[in-house]
Amino acid sequence: xxxxxxxxxxxxxxxxxxxxxxxxxxxxxxxxxxxxxxxxxxxxxxxxxxxxxxxxxxxxxxxxxxxxxxxxxxxxxxxxxxxxxxxxxxxxxxxxxxxxxxxxxxxxxxxxxxxxxxxxxxxxxxxxxxxxxxxxxxxxxxxxxxxxxxxxxxxxxxxxxxxxxxxxxxxxxxxxxxxxxxxxxxxxxxxxxxxxxxxxxxx
Length: 203
Prior knowledge:
Blueprint: E1 2-5, H1 10-19, E2 26-29, H2 46-61, E3 65-74, H3 95-106, E4 115-125, E5 131-142, E6 161-163, H4 175-181, H5 183-196
Parallel strand pairs: 1-2, 1-3
Antiparallel strand pairs: 3-4, 4-5, 5-6
């Protein structure tokens, strides 16, 4: 049973493989499936963009495909960067530049006004074009300075986000710690429950 994760982000791929590791699935990236290009993510919501990506890869591979679109929403910035999280700091910006832009916009805003949340939407698309949507959200706070990301690459906002009830950033957590509570972890667990329910057959 093959499931393609429509991403070129190694950090996201690692998270997905960890969460779904006990399912009888061969999980491969879009790159490993031979899809080197990426579609234009011009959807108005995370769900829209996840579906755009999943359909793009499913149409080219004729395989079951899942795609994620996630982002950081900072309350005092009107929900920004939101759906523009990947390109809010400009095309080609480094991970550090993306995180630093959020910190710069917030400046010396006091901690009680640095509330933020991560949101994630997953789209599962069948070879025939049917789709299902799963989601997750985690509330927290933005730090005053970027912290070192210890484990996962290419997840820049992890360096500045402290989930509610914790005293360290996502980037300072192990895979197990983060996946147990993260927005993407929630969405993937819902996907996992759906796959285990037997409502579809991955063939």
